[in-house]
Amino acid sequence: MTQKTSNRPAHKLIEVRNPEDEHWWFASRTWALLGMLDRCVTTDDRRVLDAGCGAGNMIHHLARYGPVVGLDNNYKPLMVARGRGYDVSQGSGEAVPFPDGAFDIVAALDTIEHIEDEDAVLRECARAIRPGGLLVLTGPAFMFLWSQNDEVNHHYRRYTVGELKKKLARHGFRVRRAGYNNFFLFPLAAALILLRRWSGKAPELAAPDTDKDAYQVEMEPASPLMNTVLSVVGRVEAAILRHVGLPWGTGFLLIAEKAA
């Protein structure tokens, strides 16, 4: 069962509750996303769908806007999400198993890049959102940053905000807020990716998942000191993104409104 935050201040960030939140990348994305969403969502009684919820890493954060239902096509992370007490179902983003207009907010966070038929997902999200409701998207940015991490995580593509605006317009959405995260780290990240590509040296990722009942997010590890430093950078960036979109970064964040 999800928990709802009542009388939430617009600036308040939900406390860490899941292990993934301790990683600087996840934490920074969460702070930035909630800061942007708080400017678009004024009440906490919305019906929310977390499409591609995985192990439920974002459900306790999205619950600040209302009761959350999770959806994912992979039973392994859903087992973890259920163990955390979340309301989740197995299903496909290309055929969302909910009625038309069932949700005020649909979040597809780092999801559409995993699906070959992105138009089917956007069409289903549009169907499941009520008129005037919101679609929230995050994902990897800029195809020239394609790396082994994209391969390991089974991505089909990376995006720019400009191309996403055009795709969303075809499905009846108007973009309200958009920008990029990891803005300050972008030059270093881009240089590192290009250097690894040139040298042929792959990054050290977590060990492969060999337990059929386990679930693991593939992220590069960071030392405690580095994790703290990058988390501070993430908080600064989130404060900026709350007010203005940043012009580049390794990932995008976007909030669009379905036409009434």
In CATH, the architecture is 3-Layer(aba) Sandwich
- The secondary-structure element order is HEHEHEEHEHHEHHE
Mean pLDDT: 88
Biggest sheet layout: 7 strands, mixed
> Which spans have pLDDT < 50 for at least 5 consecutive residues?
1-14
Tell me the fraction of residues in β-strands, as a range.
15-25%
How do the strands line up in the largest sheet? 3-2-1-4-5-7-6
SS-derived structural category: alpha/beta
Q: What is the 3D form?
A: globular
Features:
260 residues, alpha/beta, seven-stranded mixed sheet, 7 strands, 18% strand, globular
Can you offer a commentary on this structure?
- The chain has a single domain (19-258), classed as Rossmann fold (3-Layer(aba) Sandwich), CATH 3.40.50.
- The protein has 260 residues and is an alpha/beta fold.
- It has helices spanning 24-38, 59-62, 75-83, 118-128, 148-152, 161-169, 186-199, 224-241, and strands at 48-51, 68-72, 88-90, 103-109, 129-140, 173-181, 251-258.
- α1 runs parallel beside α8.
- A seven-stranded mixed sheet has the order 3-2-1-4-5-7-6, sandwiched between helices.
- The relative contact order is 0.18.
Which SSEs are present, and which pair or pack?
Layout (H helix, E strand, L loop, with lengths): L23 H15 L9 E4 L7 H4 L5 E5 L2 H9 L4 E3 L12 E7 L8 H11 E12 L7 H5 L8 H9 L3 E9 L4 H14 L24 H18 L9 E8 L2
Parallel strand pairs: 1-2, 1-4, 2-3, 4-5
Antiparallel strand pairs: 5-7, 6-7
Helix pairs in contact: 1-8
